[in-house]
Amino acid sequence: MVLQVPTHRKRTQWDRIATVAATAQHVADPAALPESVRVAEQAITNLRPPNGDKWTPEAARELFAITPGITYLNAGGYGVAPKPVMAVRQAWLDAAEAEPTDYSNSVDLFLPRATVAVAEFVNADPQDILFAYNTTNAVNTVLKSWGLGPMDRILTVSIAYPAVAFTIGYVQELTGAKSVQLTIPLPATREKIISAFSEMLRTSCAQPTMAVFDHVSSATALRLPVEELVQLCRQNGIWTVIDGAHGIGLVPLDLKKMDPDVYISNVHKWGFAPRGCAFLYVKRQHHARVRPLITSHGHSHRGGIQAEFFWPGTTDLSPILSVPAALAFWHTVVRDFDRNHRLAVAAAHFLAKTVDGYLIAGEDQMLAAMALIVLPRVTPEIVRRVPASTVREQVAQGVPVPALDGATPADATYATEGPEVEELSPAVLAGALHDQVRAQYGVDAIFTTVQGQVAVRIAAQVFNGPDDYVKLARALRAAILG
User: Fold this and answer.
1) Pick from 42, 45, 23: which is nearest to 31 by CA?
2) C-alpha distances in angstroms, 478 versus 65, 191, 211, 286, 428?
3) Would you state the pLDDT for residue 382?
4) N or C: which end of the chain has fewer CB within 10 A?
5) Which 8-state DSSP code applies to residue 31?
6) Which domains does the chain have, with CATH numbers?
7) Sign of the CA dihedral with 289 first, then 21, 76, and 184 last
């Protein structure tokens, strides 16, 4: 008997992943996909609006598993994977369980499809694209492996995501690097931010060596002028690490034009991938700097960064394998960035006017498809309309972001006076208001705090329509104005 060696077996997986990811011409033929995956992906390509050529919010909502009766205005929180994309993921999971060994030995043939899909969507070279579980994971990967030291100074912003800020603090302890924070002026405009950034660079005694800032900030939902900020950093010899957690699928991305040193984005937020899935773009000249948090079989392999990141150990790769389907869904159903942006802007101004609030975005171009509306009329006194049990729970937890499954019992008692009301922090008020609006009106939006005041963050996704924000406005008026 003569042993026949298949072509794909003539090199190790790490050799193959390094070579295949480097060029779109070597991506596995769709015919090689498991049949169930191929069928599920084709179903996405075949999606058509039931009436006309555009998807209405009502028709689009049928493509998601959102609980009936819930008006979901937090698409930016954790993302929402459509049912057709989840069907693709399930097909990959079934393939893995049907033949675990064969799946594990050949999965590298299919992962580059995801690499190329992302690269094409954001205009980057495939060999510069890596995957991570989420943006927090990827930020940790970059900052902890970059080789920062006592002579380095990290520039960050006041609206940074807390996990990113904590990571920078830890890296300072770990490496001796220093940090400096730029306060983003609110209400924010592009001109104000660029001016503040330029002034800091001009007057800083010690020039930063790295800048870490958001593309679209999380709690404040501000779209920063990243192209201009990256250019300023490049002119001053500063490395740029962009937290684009809200990036791919939310705003147009052209990484070759933007030219950051590092760009990180969750594909599961606005790109419809299953959680958790993020991509990490690393400029070619920095490949040697960035190493995965987990040292695994690809360590020091001649295949370089692609080989090192390919296999962190046995794990569920189905969210990454589902990326081509997720981005195909975006192209088929969402199609462009304008519709969600216009809806979010209109809804934000409507809500601000209806509930006597205001936007922290000083101009509409500071918004993508999310917006933060400050609610100055939310004071401790309105707690009389919030169940006392909810208030006590919020106080006990001391957590700014509430659980999403609170319910108001029919016989709830209410706190109407006393020191308990006086001592409520804005964060507790935000949590209690979230629970009330969700439980009584079925509206799920994010309530947070900014500058010591309660605020509500809304998002606009393909399944949202104007009526959703009217419903939120009614709920807020009832809660705030009585």
Assistant:
1) 42
2) 29, 37, 43, 54, 19
3) 65
4) N
5) G
6) 109-330 (3.40.640.10), 338-481 (3.90.1150.10)
7) positive
